Structures are given as structure tokens and as C-alpha cells.
Amino acid sequence: MGETQLEQYIPVLILLVVAVGLSGTILVSSVLFGKLGRRSRIKDTAYECGMLPIGEGNTRLSVKFYLVAMLFILFDIEVVFLYPWAVVYKEMLAKNANLIFGSMLTFLGILFVGYIYALKKRAFDWKTS
């Protein structure tokens, strides 16, 4: 019970020392023992799903892909905000019902306007480029 505040950090310090020591040991041993194995040109080539790595490594994607990804993130964040709101809705309803309901309607209204804007801009249409 008479521990000082610094004595409480001793297990964290021990864990840090063990983690740094173990990672250093693993890195040094991989460098030392990795050179001992037989290496050939075929073993050093990149393996990509059984295909030979010929051509450019990364292909260009359409802007539509990124647009759909950003829209997914937008509506995914909506669910992240809606779930906690639904969990505490009953408790907050007793305190200030109009404020909580109005704020969520405003939030959903703004998202609905964004959804209508995305529909007007044909962001969900995969056929166009």
C-alpha cells in the first residue's frame, strides 16, 4: 500500500525493456541466419498469386472507385453516430426530449441532402465513368 507513484510504473518499464530486447534479438538473428540459407534468383523474385510479376505494379483506378469509397465512409459514420444515440435515447428522452430528437433529425436531414446530391451527380451509377 505504501507504493509511490513511480513504483507503479516499474512493470511497464520491465515490459518495455523485454519488448525492445526481444524485437532486437529477432531482428539481429534474422539478419545473421537469413544469410546462411541458399538463395537463388528464382527465390528472390516476388510471388504474386502464381503469376509472374510482369508490368506495372499498381494499376490506375477510376475516380468513381474513390467516390464510392468516400460515400461508404460517410454513411458508415452515420451508423456510428446513430447506434450510441439509439442506446441512450430513452434516458435522454426524460431530460430533454425535443433537443435530442431535433438534433438527430437535423443530422439525418443533412445526410439526406448529401444522399440526394450524390444521386443527382450520379455517384452511384457504375455504368458511367
Automatic annotation (TrEMBL):
Membrane topology classification: Multi-pass membrane protein
Q: Where in the cell is it found?
A: Cell membrane; Membrane
Q: Keywords in UniProt for this one?
A: Cell membrane, Membrane, NAD, Quinone, Translocase, Transmembrane, Transmembrane helix, Transport, Ubiquinone
The residues that cross the membrane are 12-33, 65-87, 99-119
Q: Which InterPro entries match?
A: NAD(P)H_OxRDtase_bac/plastid (IPR023043), NADH_UbQ/plastoQ_OxRdtase_su3 (IPR000440), NDAH_ubi_oxred_su3_sf (IPR038430)
Listed Gene3D superfamilies = NADH:ubiquinone/plastoquinone oxidoreductase, chain 3 (1.20.58.1610)
Which GO molecular function, any one, fits this protein according to its record?
NADH dehydrogenase (ubiquinone) activity
One of the record's GO cellular component terms = plasma membrane
Top enzyme category: translocase
List its EC numbers.
7.1.1.-
Q: Which reaction does it catalyse?
A: a quinone + NADH + 5 H(+)(in) = a quinol + NAD(+) + 4 H(+)(out)
- Where it mainly occurs, coarsely classed, is membrane
The UniProt similarity line reads: Belongs to the complex I subunit 3 family.
Subunit info? NDH-1 is composed of 14 different subunits. Subunits NuoA, H, J, K, L, M, N constitute the membrane sector of the complex.
Function summary = NDH-1 shuttles electrons from NADH, via FMN and iron-sulfur (Fe-S) centers, to quinones in the respiratory chain. The immediate electron acceptor for the enzyme in this species is believed to be ubiquinone. Couples the redox reaction to proton translocation (for every two electrons transferred, four hydrogen ions are translocated across the cytoplasmic membrane), and thus conserves the redox energy in a proton gradient.
What PANTHER family would the database entry show?
Answer: NADH-QUINONE OXIDOREDUCTASE SUBUNIT A, NADH-UBIQUINONE OXIDOREDUCTASE CHAIN 3
What is this protein identified as?
NADH-quinone oxidoreductase subunit A
List the top taxonomic levels of the source.
Bacteria, Pseudomonadati, Verrucomicrobiota, Pedosphaerae, Pedosphaerales
